[in-house]
Structures are given as structure tokens and as C-alpha cells.
Automatic annotation (TrEMBL):
Residues making up the signal peptide according to the UniProt record: 1-23
Keywords: Hydrolase, Protease, Signal
PANTHER family referenced in this protein's UniProt entry, alphabetically: METALLOPROTEASE (PTHR11851), MITOCHONDRIAL-PROCESSING PEPTIDASE SUBUNIT ALPHA (PTHR11851:SF49)
Protein name, per record: Zinc protease
Assigned protein family: Belongs to the peptidase M16 family.
GO molecular function: metal ion binding; peptidase activity
One Pfam family hit: Peptidase_M16_C
Domain Peptidase M16 C-terminal span(s) in chain numbering: 195-366, 639-816
GO BP annotation list: proteolysis
SUPFAM superfamilies named among the record's database cross-references: LuxS/MPP-like metallohydrolase (SSF63411)
Residue ranges annotated for the Peptidase M16 N-terminal domain, each copy included: 40-186
Length: 888
């Protein structure tokens, strides 16, 4: 791998002031610089795929907002997508869509991030857009009035989440009197008082180059990239930035919060204030959190001994402080008090006696390994650097690594003693409640009519038009090596050298609905719950300890995975195979898992989300269709361990299994290791049929599932389609779907429902195509009085697709999105692994994505129109609504 690094002399010639050495001496792939205007730049070369991520970090967020206006930074983030001088809103949307990747932002307490994930060829475009938006943003009152409708829908969505309500109350109690007392989201009341002028002032005050850090990661030439950055941003003048707000944390007073929840299960949480990202004790806090969250620790043990459905420890770290939670999950109708007492006892013991040193050392190894795994994704690598620099005040992720390495058990124990004081704990109990049974919907089908007024094609600026002028199928960087072992197991190896790690993705093609005997619904769920209890040779603690020794993570079941440092690949594969092929399936554990699964199912069957899915399936598929099968408490409690073992022996077969290995490993070595570990696995009898049969078209229908915890409705329009995953028509439908639902603001659904009407915050559409059947879905969230209007707009846009060929500009943009997405599907180990796994199990060639690109390139507007006219039935949607009763 060639490594081209910008030298100090080159930086001087570019008129840049270096921050110390241009790069860490041990990492020639990292280039650093500070422009004359104070903007810091870090370029991290990563050759995993021809993809680049640009992440602009402004060191301002909800901490810096005016008093009484908690959502100002969030609102500015939204308005940054409404255009800038020299780039209109529609042009920005079209540019982002043409790039085909991710184009988004997020607002946190102290940092607001704007990022592109795009093909490396579009780096110039991404940098120019980021530059224009730093220079200025359009803040017209009329534009803010429209965007306010969308952002208020986002507020409604989050306020419909009981967990968000809990976090909001927790932050207010934990951080009273500081900027952390409010979330970055904002409130509808404050947005109603917010003006466009206020938003512009915030942008002009804080969005200065000397208050920004630009991180670029991907397959780029560092020297040339730094020159482009200088050309784009060097002329932006630095500005005086106000002082950051002060944080004066007062002691937390113990409190218990009780809330209802729409989830199938209840939650007990005990929260404590902990050191923040910039604290000298943050690494210690991180290790303590991971040690207590270990599968070998007592909190996780609550799941395995039947005390709780799940137990663990997790946290959220902010720059100046953090919040860590001990978590226990109880079934609907269950008593949370025994779990609460057990959690309190575990934390008290950690405070008084300390944490097992073995768990501390394992936590350290895993935390360090996690930093190495970040390299396995282009955008993950950019996020790691942005977090280190912008949020943690460090010079690099390596500095975080060094801090973790220096943590001692004594430091962990001291922090546990100081933190886990019941007098400063906030306890929350979220109890499931029933919202009512689903009812046939009336009055929300919508009879509104919206005159269709197609927008004029967007004329791109010359610099963008030139970048997108040529459409071509990108060359795949993948060169997988494929094997079929004597027992029928398929193995695919994709060597990669960007990190010293290997990730393994496996799947056994099973279908409980078609393979489980009648009356044994839920058998696969019980089986999945038994895998964590160890193997025939190692109990669960011994198995987890073996994984901890090599800093590996394994999950077992019909879908299984391994993440391991490459030096321990052979050992990791052996452990993966041991868990997959020789699960212990102990009788004592079966009794625990059976009761946990039955309790979980009972809760799910009363939760609004599950009721919505069951209702949709019943409306879409004929009676007695296998897809309508689902576990019940009775079917789960009717199982025996022998029935679970019989299902395992029947459904888990090597000739139905594919394993994909991605990472720093030689294909021959991988084949040898996998063959040794999995080669003795045998199958008997003919292969089972695991694909659902074709179904007739569904009839129109309506369904409303009450959800008393929600203030916003979640709406799904769904129908069956007579298209399968192998049908050539899928290409035209997918291309049309990019026009309707792809490319952020540039899609018709986003443009009409969000941008023009302000009815929704998000809207999405997708096809779900199986071997013999398929469905088409459109989903959005909105206030109850907007359900019908949004539905009418969706149907209008679909009818327009059927009646009129899409414009040449829309067609070209949709093709560009799909073609540019091809390299993005290869920009992380996970994306590579799941793509190859899916293609193999569907019986498609491993270069099928390139073949698809060639199909998209040839399609015409008439092809798209005909496909939608033939396969989409605008009068046959099932409209399913979860939330308050729709109005109007």
C-alpha cells in the first residue's frame, strides 16, 4: 500500500501553519495542519474503498444557546440544509443526492457535526459545499417557517418515546443549573418564539473557522487534499468567538422517577454522574463501565440466573460530565423491586469491595481493541478522530488508547467508591402499559386532493454539474475468494489490510415459520436464548473468559459473527465454531430461558409496535399464511428441551450456511481454519424449503393501534407486489424509488411532505423482495391532524410516477445515486460482509452489484413509468397508524 504524506516543506509552501509535527511519527497515514485562520485539519488516509468522509466539527452546540431557547443550535443545523449564498436549497439537495452517500448532521451539547460520506471522486464537491456553508447560510423567515414545521415533528417524534422522556428528566435532575440540564432537541414552545434572525446570529457567532475542526478520512492523496482544503477555506476570516459557558455542577440529590412505556418490557435504571470526556478520569470511567457491563459480571448474571430478562451497564459521556446506568429489564406485569434491590446490592459491593481485577484487565483490552476496529469503516474512522479531537480534547485516538492502557484496578475501585453513592443516584422505573386493542381505522384514509405541480428541473452550479456530468458503473474494489467445503458450507474471504483485525459474518438459512412443527412457535427464540450459556466443554463464564483473553467478540445462533484481532484469528474461529456447533443447551438454563421468552412474548403481544406489525401482516397476507405464525406464551411454555434440540438438529445445517471472512487474513489460512473448525459438521436428508410462497394481491385496508405514550403518529402504507428479488422489474422499481424516496431533500416525498408542506420530519419508502413474494412500504411520522394530508401527497406522487415519465434530471440523479452507492457498500467490513453474505445466500454471483449498476445505467424514464404503472396499486394500500387517533 503506497503511503503519500504531505511533508512540512510542502505545508509551508501552501502557506499553512503546522501544529507541531505534521503527523504522528508512527502513523504516516495521518496529516495534520492548522490554516492561518485557525481552522484545524486532520486527514487520515484509508484505502479500504474509493470512499471519503468529510466531517466538519463546529465547537458549539446546545451548551451555547441563548437562555430560554434550548433548540437554537439544533434549529441552525436544520437551516444549514436550506441553502447558502451561491448554493440554493434545491441545488444543495440535488448536489447531495447526486453524490449518493450520506449527507447529514447532528447536534450535541458541545459540538455540531456536518458530514458527507461519498465516493472519493466527489471530495472536491463535498469540500466546496462545506466551505459555502461556513461562509454563510440562508436564514429567510419564510424558509424558517417551513423548516420549523419539520423540526417540530421531530420534537413530537422524540416526545413519543418514553425512554427520551426519561433521559430528559434525568438530565434536568442530574445537571440542574448547567447547560446540560436540557437536551439539544429543543421544545415546540421555544421554536414558536425563535426567529430567523436569532438563528443567523448564532451561525455568524459560532460557525467560524477558528472554532472548527475538519476531519477527512478515506482513499485520498493527503498532499493534494490539504491543498484543496486551503483553497476552499483559507480565505474565510477568523472571528472572535465568545467564551464557552461555565459548568458548576451541584451534588445530585437522590430521586426516583416512574414513567409508563410502550415497550414490551419494563426497565429499571440506576444512574450516576460520572467523569466527562475531557476529564483526566474519563479512561478510568470507561474501563469501569465496560467491566461492570461484562458478560462475566454480576449485572449480566441477572439474565442468566433468571432474576431479569437482561442486565447490564452502559453510559453516555459528555465533554464535562457523563451519565452511567445500571440496567435491568423485567417482563410486562413483573415486579421490578427484586431487580432493583439486586442492582443496588451489586453496585454497593463494587463500591465497597472493588471490581474484579480480571474484569478490569479484560475491559481494558476490549476498549483498546475497539479503537482498532474503528479502522474497519471509513466513516467510523472519521468519527473516531472527530470524537477524540472535538469532544475529548485529545490529539488522536492513540492518546485515548494510551490513557486506557494506564488505568489501574486501584483507580477503577477508587472511582467506583466515589461514584456509587445511593445518596446521589437517580432511579427510574419504566413500566409497560396497555394502550388498547387495534381497531379498523376510520376517517384517516384521506380524501384530500393536492394539485400536482411538478417543480422545474434544478440547474446545478457549473462546479457541481461538471462533477456529475458522466455516469458510469464504478469498478468494485472487492476480490473475494470463494470456496465450498465438502459438507456444503460456503466460505467467502475478502482480504483487507487497513487494520490488524478480522471480522466474520455467518448465517444459516432457516425459517421458523416453515420449519417449526405446529404448536412449537417460539422454538427458535428459545434456542437463540440458550447459545450464550456456553458450550459442551466450557460453561458460559469460561467461554466468555476465553474470548476476553483474545479481545474477541462472538455471537452465536442462526446468524453468527466474530470480531477478533488478526493475530488471534485461528483461536477466534475455534471459539466461534464451538459455540455454534457444540452449544451446551443445559436443562437448568432451558427453564430460565423458556420463562423469560414466554414473558417477553406476552409483553410483545400487548405492545403497540408488535400489534402494528401483526395487524399489517394479517391485512397483507391470506389466512393461514406461514408469515402470520408467531409465538405465544402458551406455545413457548409448551416446549421441551428435547423439542428445542430437535429443531436445532434439523434447522442448523452446513449446506444451508455461508461464512464471510473480511480482514487481515490470507484466504488459504482462512479456509484452513474454517475447515478445521467447521469441517466435521454434517447434514442429513434433503435441504429444507425456507422461502415463503407467493401470495395474491392484498385488499385495501386501514388499521389504528393506540399508543398512549405517543404524541405523534407513526404511519405505514403497505401493499404486496408481484415482484421478487430475481425479477428484472426490480431494477426499474428501485430506480423509481430513488426518485420518490432517495436523496434526502431531493426526493419527491421529502420535497412535498416535509419541505413544501412541513407535514412530516422523516419519510421513507422501500421494497422488501423475497424469493417468491414482495412488499412495498412508505413510512412517515406526523401529528394526528396531518396523517390524511401526508397520505394524500404520497398517493399523488405515486400516481404521477405512473402517469408521467420522470424528468431527465430526476432520472440522471437517481442513476447517479445508485451508481455512487456501489463503492459505499464496500466502505466498511460490515457492509462488505453482509453484502457478500446476502448475495451468496440468494444464489447470486458475488459481482451482482456491478451487474445491477449496468442495468440501472440502461434504464429509461419510460421503463420506470411502466414498472410503477404495472406493479404499484395506489388504491390497494393498507394504512396502519400507531399513536393517537388520527384527526380529520
Amino acid at each position: 500500500m503506497k503511503q503519500r504524506v504531505l511533508r512540512l516543506s510542502a505545508a509551508i509552501s501552501l502557506g499553512l501553519a503546522a501544529t507541531g509535527a505534521m503527523a504522528a511519527a508512527h502513523d504516516a497515514n495521518v496529516t495534520r495542519a492548522t490554516l492561518d485562520n485557525g481552522m484545524r485539519v486532520v486527514i487520515v488516509r484509508d484505502t479500504l474503498a474509493p470512499v471519503v468522509t468529510t466531517e466538519m466539527n463546529y465547537l458549539a452546540g446546545s451548551d451555547e444557546v441563548p437562555a430560554g431557547f434550548p433548540g437554537t443550535a439544533h434549529a441552525v443545523e436544520h437551516m444549514m440544509f436550506r441553502g447558502s449564498p451561491g448554493l440554493s436549497k434545491d441545488q444543495l439537495a440535488a448536489v447531495a443526492a447526486n453524490m449518493g452517500g450520506a449527507f447529514n448532521a447532528d447536534t450535541t451539547q458541545g459540538v455540531t457535526q456536518y458530514y458527507f460520506v461519498a465516493p472519493a471522486q466527489d471530495l472536491d464537491v463535498a469540500l466546496h459545499v462545506q466551505s459555502l456553508r461556513m461562509r454563510g447560510v440562508d436564514m429567510a423567515p419564510a424558509a424558517w417557517a417551513k423548516e420549523r414545521g419539520a423540526i417540530e415533528q421531530e420534537v413530537s417524534r422524540d416526545l413519543s418515546s418514553p425512554s427520551f422522556k426519561f433521559r430528559s428528566q434525568l438530565m434536568a435532575q442530574m445537571f440542574a443549573g448547567t447547560p446540560y440540564a436540557h437536551t439539544p432537541l429543543g421544545t415546540r414552545e421555544s421554536f414558536d418564539k425563535t426567529t430567523a434572525a436569532m438563528l443567523k446570529k448564532f451561525h455568524d457567532t459560532w460557525y467560524a473557522p477558528n472554532n472548527a475542526i475538519l476531519v477527512i478520512a478515506g482513499d485520498v492523496d493527503p498532499s493534494a487534499t490539504l491543498a484543496k482544503v486551503k483553497a476552499e477555506f483559507g480565505g474565510i476570516a477568523r472571528r472572535m468567538v465568545p467564551a464557552k459557558p461555565a459548568f458548576d455542577f451541584k451534588p445530585v440529590q437522590a430521586k426516583t422517577v416512574s414513567l409508563p412505556t410502550d415497550t414490551p418490557y419494563g426497565t429499571v435504571a440506576i444512574a450516576y454522574r460520572t467523569p466527562g470526556l475531557t476529564s483526566k478520569d474519563y479512561a478510568t470511567s470507561l474501563v469501569l463501565s465496560q467491566a461492570l457491563g461484562s458478560q462475566r459480571a454480576a449485572l449480566a448474571g441477572m439474565r442468566f440466573d433468571g432474576t431479569a430478562l437482561f442486565g447490564g451497564f452502559m453510559g453516555q459521556a459528555l465533554p464535562h460530565a457523563g451519565v452511567d446506568y445500571a440496567i435491568g429489564i423485567f417482563p410486562r406485569g413483573g415486579n421490578p423491586q427484586p431487580i432493583l434491590k439486586r442492582m443496588q446490592s451489586i453496585l454497593a459491593e463494587a463500591a465497597s469491595k472493588g471490581v474484579d481485577p480480571a474484569l478490569v484487565e479484560a475491559a481494558k483490552r476490549k476498549a483498546i481493541a475497539a479503537l482498532e476496529f474503528k479502522k474497519n469503516s471509513v466513516d467510523g474512522l472519521a468519527n473516531a478522530w472527530s470524537s477524540a479531537l472535538a469532544m475529548q480534547g485529545a490529539e488522536s485516538p492513540d492518546e485515548i488508547k494510551q490513557a486506557i492502557e494506564a488505568v489501574t484496578p486501584a483507580q477503577v475501585n477508587a472511582l467506583a467508591k466515589a461514584t456509587f453513592d445511593p445518596a446521589h443516584a437517580i432511579t427510574a422505573i419504566l413500566t409497560p402499559q396497555s394502550s388498547g386493542k387495534p381497531v379498523a381505522g376510520k376517517g384517516f384514509g384521506g380524501a384530500e386532493s393536492f394539485a400536482s405541480s411538478p417543480d422545474k428541473p434544478v440547474t446545478l452550479p457549473g462546479w457541481a454539474a461538471n462533477a456529475f456530468a458522466k455516469l458510469e458503473v464504478p469498478r468494485s474494489a472487492l476480490k473475494p475468494v470463494s470456496y465450498t467445503l465438502p459438507n456444503g458450507l460456503k466460505l467467502i474471504v475478502q482480504p483487507e489490510s487497513v487494520s490488524d483485525t478480522v471480522e466474520v459474518f455467518g448465517n444459516i438459512n432457516t425459517n421458523q415459520d416453515l420449519q417449526a412443527p405446529k404448536g412449537e412457535e417460539g422454538v427458535a427464540d428459545v434456542l437463540d436464548g440458550l447459545f450464550p450459556f456456553g458450550t459442551t466443554d466450557m460453561n458460559r463464564l469460561q467461554f466468555q473468559q476465553a474470548l476476553d483473553q483474545i479481545s474477541a467478540h462472538v455471537s452465536n445462533g442462526s446468524s453468527f459473527s466474530l470480531a477478533v484481532p488478526s493475530a488471534h484469528f485461528d483461536e477466534g474461529i475455534k471459539l466461534l465454531a464451538a459455540g455454534e456447533l457444540h452449544p451446551a443447551l443445559p436443562a437448568q438454563a432451558f427453564a430460565v430461558v423458556q420463562h423469560q421468552t414466554a414473558a417477553g412474548v406476552a409483553g410483545e403481544l400487548q405492545s403497540p409496535g408488535t400489534l402494528l406489525q401483526l395487524g399489517l401482516a394479517k391485512a397483507l397476507f391470506p389466512a393461514h399464511d406461514p408469515d402470520l405464525r408467531h409465538p405465544t406464551p402458551q406455545s413457548v411454555m409448551g416446549l421441551s428441551l428435547d423439542k428445542v434440540k430437535q429443531y436445532y438438529a434439523q434447522a442448523f445445517r452446513p449446506d444451508m450456511t455461508t461464512i464471510v471472512v473480511v480482514g487481515k487474513v490470507d484466504p488459504a489460512q482462512a479456509k484452513q481454519a474454517v475447515e478445521q473448525a467447521f469441517g466435521g459438521w454434517k447434514a442429513s436428508g434433503p435441504k429444507p424449503d425456507v422461502d415463503y410462497a407467493a401470495v395474491p394481491p392484498n385488499k385495501v385496508g386501514q388499521l389504528h393501534v393506540p399508543d398512549s405514550s405517543a404524541v405523534q403518529d407513526s404511519v405505514t402504507l403497505a401493499q404486496t407486489v408481484n415482484v421478487t428479488r430475481d425479477d428484472p422489474a426490480r431494477f426499474a422499481l428501485n430506480l423509481g424509488n430513488q426518485v420518490l424516496g432517495g436523496g434526502f431533500y431531493a426526493s419527491r416525498f421529502y420535497h412535498d411532505l416535509r419541505d413544501k408542506a412541513g407535514l412530516v420530519y422523516t419519510v421513507s419508502s422501500h421494497f422488501d423482495l423475497d424469493k417468491h413474494r414482495g412488499t412495498y412500504n412508505v413510512s412517515y411520522g406526523c401529528d394526528p391532524d396531518k396523517v390524511a394530508a401526508a397520505r394524500a401527497m404520497v398517493l399523488r406522487d405515486l400516481k404521477q410516477m405512473q402517469a408521467t415519465p420522470v424528468s431527465a434530471s430526476d432520472l440522471k440523479r437517481a442513476k447517479g445515486i445508485l451508481l455512487r452507492q456501489l463503492p459505499l457498500r464496500e466502505s466498511s467490513f460490515g457492509a462488505i460482509g453482509h453484502q457478500l453474505l446476502t448475495l451468496s445466500q440468494q444464489g447470486k454471483p458475488l459481482d451482482a452489484m456491478t451487474v445491477a449498476g449496468e442495468h440501472y445505467l440502461k434504464l429509461t424514464a419510460k421503463d420506470v413509468q411502466q414498472a410503477y404503472a404495472k406493479h404499484i396499486r395506489t388504491d390497494a394500500f393498507v394504512t396502519a397508524v400507531k399513536g393517537p387517533t388520527p384527526k380529520g
